[in-house]
Amino acid sequence: MLDEQVAAIRKLEGELDDGVTFIEMGEAENDPASVAEGEASIRRVEAETARRQVETLLSGEADNNDTYLEVHSGAGGTESQDWARMLSRMYARWGERRGFKVDLIEQTDGEEAGIKGATLLLKGHNAYGWAKTESGVHRLVRISPFDSNARRHTSFASVWVYPVVDDRIVVDIKESDCRIDTYRSSGAGGQHVNTTDSAVRITHIPTGIVVACQQERSQHKNRATAWNMLRARMYEAELKRREEKASADQAAKTDIGWGHQIRSYVLQPYQLVKDLRTGTVSQTPSEVLDGELDPFMEAALAQRVYGGGEGVEDID
């Protein structure tokens, strides 16, 4: 690993030297094309250096693991369920942008539109490390497409992120502490909807943690995946306890709840996305909802490592 890092640094140094050389040659020979090529090379080095700097923040115990990401709609019926669908799509697109493999593990459709909840599995290096700061409540303000009077509505949905645990990590769960339910998978209709009770839901009674899987047609496979998800949730809870115990920043210790918003997405009357922990802002919500989340994640990761303020004021 160290050898790879040294090789990467030397490669960047070489590219930087090449860029400087191109610029010097271009200026000496009055060749704008060489100058432009050198400047482009230096910009690439700058971007790669910034990316690697962020990667150094991903040093947590499970940061390099794959990750589960759950989205749940809040109160508000169709509005919040449509918002949960938008968030699920946003994270799927973000995962694809980063080159992760994205699997839909479970999804419960809304009565009229959107979803009540969904679980994604993102597979790739540092998937959990990147996504872990997204846990919390996300708020949407927009003119409702479901309101015939075109009024502005505020909707909420929660996100929960927890790492996939591998064979090196032992999580002891007593089966007697769990309730296992089976049910028929939901879907868009047609031949893809199961006609048997193949979906599995496991409830860990002492903690109230609930996981569900309907990805496979086989109840046996769904049960195995659900157990893995439960182990992951229990492990994430332990990681959170350790982090809170070690952290000196009391503001970072709040539990996830409807009163603890981490980000607001305003589509009307103006266009703005604002992170309430770091103050990071985007004036292109369409790009954020299409998966452009790295600036928000980078700022939140840096705040975890280096500390920060007590949060910023919300937007209407």
Key structural traits:
316 residues, alpha+beta, eight-stranded mixed beta sheet, three-stranded antiparallel beta sheet, globular
The largest sheet is: 8 strands, mixed
Rounded Rg: 23 Å
The fraction of residues assigned to DSSP E strands is 15-25%
* Cα-to-Cα separation, first versus last residue: 47 Å
- The secondary structure category is alpha+beta
Range of helix content: 25-40%
Described by the principal axes of the CA atoms, the overall outline is: globular
Counted by DSSP, the helix tally is 7
Average of pLDDT? 83
Strand adjacency order, main sheet: 2-3-1-5-4-9-10-11
Provide the low-confidence segments as ranges: 188-193, 248-257
What's the SSE pattern? HHEHEEHEEEEEHEEEHH
Q: Tell how many strands the DSSP assignment holds.
A: 11
Brief summary:
The chain has helices at residues 2-28, 32-55, 78-97, 127-131, 219-246, 285-289, 294-306, and strands spanning 67-73, 101-109, 115-123, 136-143, 152-163, 178-183, 199-204, 209-213, 261-266, 272-275, 281-282. It has 316 residues and is α+β, with helices and mostly antiparallel strands.
Give the topology.
Layout: H1 2-28, H2 32-55, E1 67-73, H3 78-97, E2 101-109, E3 115-123, H4 127-131, E4 136-143, E5 152-163, E6 178-183, E7 199-204, E8 209-213, H5 219-246, E9 261-266, E10 272-275, E11 281-282, H6 285-289, H7 294-306
Parallel strand pairs: 4-9
Antiparallel strand pairs: 1-3, 1-5, 2-3, 4-5, 6-7, 7-8, 9-10, 10-11
